[in-house]
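Below is one protein, fold included:
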Amino acid sequence: MSYAKVLCVGLVGVTGHVVEVEADLATGLPTVVLSGLPDTALNEARDRVRAAIVNSGQRWPNRRITVNLLPATLPKHGSAFDLAIAAALLGGSGEMPLAPLDRVAVLGELGLDGTVRPVRGVLPMVVAAVRAGITRVVVPLDNAAEASVVPGVRVRAVDTLHRLVAFIRDGTPLLDPPSPPATSPRPGPDLADVAGQGLGRRALEVAAAGGHHLALFGPPGAGKTMLAERLPSILPELDDEGALEVTALHSIAGLLPPDGQLLRRPPFQAPHHTATIASLVGGGSGLARPGAVSLAHRGVLFLDEAPEFVRGALEALRQPLESGRIVLARSRGGTEYPARVQLVVAANPCPCAKPSGDISCECTPLARRRYLGRLSGPLLDRLDVQVRVSPLRAAELMAAEQTVESSAVVAERVGKARAAAAARWAAGGWRVNAEVPGPQLRHPRWRLPANDTHALRRLLDSGVLSARGFDRVIRLAWSIADLDGRQRPDAGDVDEATQLRTGSLA
């Protein structure tokens, strides 16, 4: 037999595609030709596979070898095709029958000694295989726990090429995925640690209830960072669909923990203010890799000292904040990643970062406006909640333990509010109030009475609020009503939402 075919899976962004790895062995000058739009890492598979086959005790076929990856128009990248290529070559040379690999996806990178090494992105690859009707996969041993979280698939693991050959030839059983370790969730930051800041805590709770973006302005030490870091602690755990999406993105980035389990807690990303545009939104040569905004999908992206970020990096976030996804065009094609995040920005009031009114602050009003002006109007317009946090007083600091609520207490209210919103907007497929489009909010069924929105409409007519800002205040009002357990917002909810939206920045 001079022809063989083995199934594998390739990734374009976070989307997997089943790839047929064909091997044809013909008479002629011994060489290996690899076709099907491979990248540099995949082109180098010729040398890795040859060494792995020889060092595993198998015979290398000295013939003209053509390896084709179908569909040929789909860009292929990475080393996950190594094991499938080796199996196809050995099958095509007649060294072993490939019937045991019929309708089986084979994934893995080969070392020169024949060991099978883990690869990135196994989770979305296995998900794509299941969607294509493939119910059996062979993966590296270190990726087996990750692959086994996908329902509807039988996962078997290999640690060497020799083990795969023994399975195909003699029926030697492959390895089972390791049992998930019994782990207890690690305690994270708790809202009980935050002293005072009643307005900041309320803003955080409303933002969590409705999935709203949040801006915190105030002097150093007031608690902006502490509040932002505790937002994930009051968010509900991810459902199965969300957990698969988030875990797949972290798998592609190589950031999954060793146990390979689904990530149930909303992710939290806090890039340094020196972060580049590519690190925030995604980048890289060939096909772009996910950036911080995608790694924070279904979670929180926190930009501390936001005015210190490069302006271009901040402006690059405007489009994904609206659409919940990001499309990156590169030389080898476009890549789309999900990017539905809650953005939290924190900023000091001026360059010297001293409290307003402090006699030691020498910043002029112009310098203060220029500093906060680094956050452009279009970006701020997309931040639903904008509040100023004040410096703590001694009485607030010393009485904190007796007066503040824990994250568990607040999370219970947030969970009930989100459940109410999800039930209300279920027909449109929106999970939180922040996702509801403006036309839906103004539909006669959901439009708020004119008496309740009179002051808000006056702000729109005077130019204080944009049309986008008007809709965002209405969404905030719905979230406030959900937290209070009411069916619809009233005038008081609209007034509070307006206050949270139009907080003074100076």
